[in-house]
Amino acid sequence: MLDSKIVGGLVVDGTGAAPFRADIGVKDGRIVDIRRSDGLSSGIGTEAAETLDATGRYVLPGFVDIHTHYDGQVTWDSLLEPSSSHGVTTVVSGNCGVGFAPVTPGREPWLIELMEGVEDIPGTALTEGMTWGWESFPGYLDRIAERELAVDFGVQVGHGPVRAYVMGDRGAHNEAATGDDIAAMARLVQEAVEAGALGFSTSRTVAHRAMNGEPVPGTYAAEDELFGLGRAMAHGGRAVFELAPTGSAGEDLVAPARELDWMRRLAQEIDRPVSYALLQVDAAPTLWRELMETSAAAFEAGSPLYPQIAARPFGMLIGFAGHHAFTHRPSFRALARLSPAERGFELAKPAVRKAILSEEDLPVDRTRQFDGMKDMIAFSLDRLYAMGDPPDYEPTRERTVAAIAGRRGVSGLEALYDLMLEQAAGTDHPATSMLMIPFFNYADASHDVIREMLTHPAGVSGLSDAGAHCGMICDASYPTFLLTHWVRDRHRGERLALEHVVKKQTADTAALFGLGDRGVLAPGKRADLNVVDLDRLTLHTPRMAYDLPAGGRRLVQDASGYAVTMVAGTVTRRDGVDTGARPGRLVRGAR
Question: Are residues 178 and 255 in the same domain?
Fold first, then answer.
């Protein structure tokens, strides 16, 4: 008898093949049979303990999100939302050179401040929520291996923790590494991969800084250090060298070509994938295409380079619940201790609005990460878009705050205040609306460039940053967005085929990290899958939740239309509701 079978659904198997009607049999956590039921055969007749009717729905592989930051959250949260609510069944964490192992005893708070600064995860939540108890990276893996999760969890070892562990303050302050330093770091990296790390990650963009403003350790690492650690990673086993390269945030438009040169040489030497963030920057809107083509040519020549690309504009969400232009106004500060609902009602009062708009800002602490965000927002009203409800991630320039202010005959800040004050659907108080400022991937105010990236053979879907940038984004919803916007709803340009979108976030992402036991629906593969009602699949408006430890805030974006999510043959969600099952485990190494 089968444990379960999924019958009557249209299967999109992750290979890029067109959908076909079939029944799927599952036993002991794996797919054991797939039989077409569209007239070519009668489907699976074997009895099963549970039969799931997928008639009128699509059956897809579980999504594999390769760019997340659940390194701390995994120690207290077995559900790993928001990812698990968007059909994700495997996450890869430890990106961008940050993480929590190895750690010198007593230096845990420094790693928390580094993570908080680089990834905007509330330090209070990490401090209260995290359960420590390790020093080495293998020790960290052993602790995570004890956890029962809603999704599978894989992790890379980060350059920042390794550098600080070996070099202490010299490493934290980005001093040059000696030969002995590099040798010691290399031993730790090899040890981590041998223990099960899926890769090694580093960051070289100056946009990544700790809470004290210091660049993440490794930002200025010389080639001898990068190659030494890359070789160590390769000696440890099948793993990925992942990075946020210099110039990825647009700070140096000449740097990306230089970065690609050493990445190409490293990938060729160690014969391991090198994956890097690739985005369109406004100052050089066609540079991404040159880098993508260079990467594709390098791949053909034997250097496995994999640009990681985003599914939509890459930036941040603005609202009274998160970052905005009025955070340093005295009258707004006076409302800080109120609940979100109470604050919304106060902000809606004409006298409060008038006071906030008329005030000067309080001083900004330039040594603290994110403290000057309000200035950037105030001077970006011509590229700050009202999203609406349901959210539109491809708005026209007529939807910018500046354009709306012009039509209303008010100042830009007045329009911004009023737009943020609007009440979102499903809420009972104002000040819940979110606006979008796209830093990257939106130079032409359309998704045409993103579509070109998503169809380019060199690109791998990534960069969701799930679990991070809690007050700025909720791009953990990328999988749902790919299905709703790119497959079904886009109206300002060409869409994408369902089978292409599915392959991009299942087979392709799994293959990059050597996770060959998943990402495709086929006999012998893990039974990680989703049953999706594509007609009613909905990506709801982002909202601010205060459900992290210590009341920490995070943006979440709900989805409806996932009928079933299954991990290792166990149903973890039904109609979007957590079943309480926790079949997910730590993933150690390529498989």
Answer: yes
